[in-house]
Amino acid sequence: MNSRTQDVLKELLTGQRVMALGVLVDGAPYVGMLPFALHPGYTALLVQASDLARHSRGLADGARFSALIQEPDQPGLNPAELQRITLEGTVRRLERGSVEYATARDVYEKKFPESKRLFQMGDFNLYRLEIERGRLVAGFGDVHNVTRDELARIGEHEQPE
């Protein structure tokens, strides 16, 4: 992966605020839109979700997920050429009161300060989406498989904003 492609990847993971999250709910695929933050190290996404949301039923420990993060569509752009990454992995619900929860909450609140009040509500939980692999479209014909190890290498040298 060249430096331009890495820049596209970093911009998608740190510059975008929402993603489409696909999970299985009652045995059927379900897609929701969620704000996300990148966990330091680039190997996980953090999401906050209410137990009342339908997609939360698909966020059990060990459940599989797929996520799509893309640059915003704009008039004049060819939608097929939008920069985007599709990620796959496993869900982990973080336990309130744990050090890992506190660290993840700090990262999430830094990106979404308005989320502080939601952490006070009992039905909102914090999830760590462990990335196993991805598929990056950096432009027309510029497509790359992305491994967890590659993300970790990039994360060693960068700090998410």
Structure, described:
By secondary structure, this protein is α+β, with helices and mostly antiparallel strands. It has helices at residues 3-15, 99-111, 116-119, 148-157; strands at residues 18-25, 28-35, 37-38, 44-50, 64-70, 84-93, 124-139, 142-147. It contains four helices and eight strands. Strands 1, 2, 3, 4, 5, 6, 7 and 8 form an eight-stranded antiparallel beta sheet that branches. A hairpin with a 2-residue loop joins β7 and β8 (142-147). It starts with a helix and ends with a helix.
Q: TL;DR of this structure?
A:
By secondary structure, the chain is of the alpha+beta class. Helix content is about 25%, strand content about 40%.
Describe the SSE topology.
Elements: H1 3-15, E1 18-25, E2 28-35, E3 37-38, E4 44-50, E5 64-70, E6 84-93, H2 99-111, H3 116-119, E7 124-139, E8 142-147, H4 148-157
Antiparallel strand pairs: 1-2, 1-5, 3-4, 4-7, 5-6, 6-7, 7-8
